[in-house]
């Protein structure tokens, strides 16, 4: 059993993640265990589960069967599940065009936005590990009170010209947050996603966010700054890398950890002082 993190009065934050059965076994269980060990006890974790029931019986964890909770996901998959929409091009899968694999996290985020009573919602990928106590005050500063959302951008990255959606913050008190959720989900339920250049959720998130920014004058915060934090692994180069790791891709998952080479030089020296990164 994980050691419980100290109790803090932070009931205004909620976290959600998604995974399927294989993902739960490979990385999701570790994500939940390390979350419970390090995050404040007042922060609930919502699990949107595909064909698996962890049945954790922990008061901090809320489990959802994603097909029961988000029937739109079932409808979308039933209508569009084929090789092409799974990103297969010329016999090889390209994740940038995979509308099916990444739709679950979109429907889950939209459901949580519409149903949460928290002030702030965090989406965190299930292939993450929390190895230290999160600096909650600093995390909250990433999302100014008048901003709609905070995200990990990839400015100046021509190969991957969209956000890294392993971590997203939503301001649930923002006047346009429901507009965002409706716009995000509408890309899928109407099939507009297939008119976009890319179908990965990173691109659809950017698309929905920009629509709300343009139509409503909403502001958002790229936590990597105007110049970004590299093309390899921006997640761990942000403040998130001081307490979380993101096992992005098969290589990091099999290793169980990100690589020291993933850090930019200006970040590496400071990070490697932490026991986890040594």
Describe this structure in words.
By secondary structure, the protein is an alpha/beta fold. The chain has one domain: Spore Coat Polysaccharide Biosynthesis Protein SpsA, Chain A, CATH 3.90.550. It is 35% helix and 22% strand. It has 10 helices and 11 strands. The strands form 3 sheets. The chain has a 7-stranded mixed β-sheet, with helices on both faces. Helix 1 links the parallel strand 1 and strand 2. It is globular. The relative contact order is 0.13.
Taking all Cα atoms into account, the compactness measure Rg is 18 Å
End-to-end CA span: 25 Å
Helix and strand succession? Answer: EHEEHHEEHEEHEEHHEHEHH
* CATH architect. name: Alpha-Beta Complex
Summed over residues and divided by their number, the pLDDT gives a mean of 93
As a percent range, the share of helical residues equals: 25-40%
Strand order of the largest sheet: 3-2-1-6-9-8-10
The secondary structure category is: alpha/beta
Query: What is the overall number of helices?
Result: 10
Q: What portion of the residues fall into strands of 2 or more residues?
A: 15-25%
Low-confidence stretches: 1-11
CATH topology: Spore Coat Polysaccharide Biosynthesis Protein SpsA, Chain A
Classified by CATH, the class is Alpha Beta
- Total beta strand runs: 11
Shape: globular
Number of domains: 1
């Amino acid at each position: 059993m994980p050691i419980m993190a100290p109790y803090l009065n932070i009931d205004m934050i909620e976290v959600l993640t998604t995974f399927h059965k294989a993902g739960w076994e490979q990385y999701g269980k570790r994500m939940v265990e390390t979350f419970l060990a390090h995050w404040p006890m007042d922060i609930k974790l919502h699990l949107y589960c595909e064909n698996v029931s962890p049945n954790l019986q922990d008061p901090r964890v809320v489990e959802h069967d994603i097909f029961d909770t988000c029937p739109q996901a079932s409808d979308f998959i039933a209508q569009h599940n084929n090789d092409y929409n799974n990103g297969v091009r010329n016999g090889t899968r390209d994740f940038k065009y995979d509308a099916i694999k990444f739709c679950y996290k979109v429907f889950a985020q939209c459901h949580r936005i519409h149903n949460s009573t928290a002030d702030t919602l965090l989406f965190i990928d299930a292939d993450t590990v929390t190895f230290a106590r999160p600096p909650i005050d600093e995390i909250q500063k990433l999302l100014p009170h008048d901003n709609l959302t905070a995200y990990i951008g990839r400015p100046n990255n021509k190969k991957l010209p969209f956000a890294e959606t392993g971590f997203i913050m939503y301001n649930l008190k923002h006047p346009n947050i429901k507009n965002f959720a409706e716009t995000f989900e509408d890309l899928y339920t109407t099939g507009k996603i297939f008119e976009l250049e890319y179908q990965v959720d990173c691109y659809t998130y950017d698309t929905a966010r920009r629509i709300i920014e343009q139509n409503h004058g909403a502001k958002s915060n790229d936590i990597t700054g105007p110049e970004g934090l590299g093309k390899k692994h921006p997640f761990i180069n942000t403040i998130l890398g001081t307490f979380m790791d993101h096992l992005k891709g098969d290589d990091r998952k099999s290793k169980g950890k990100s690589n020291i080479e993933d850090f930019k030089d200006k970040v590496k020296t400071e990070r490697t002082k932490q026991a986890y990164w040594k």
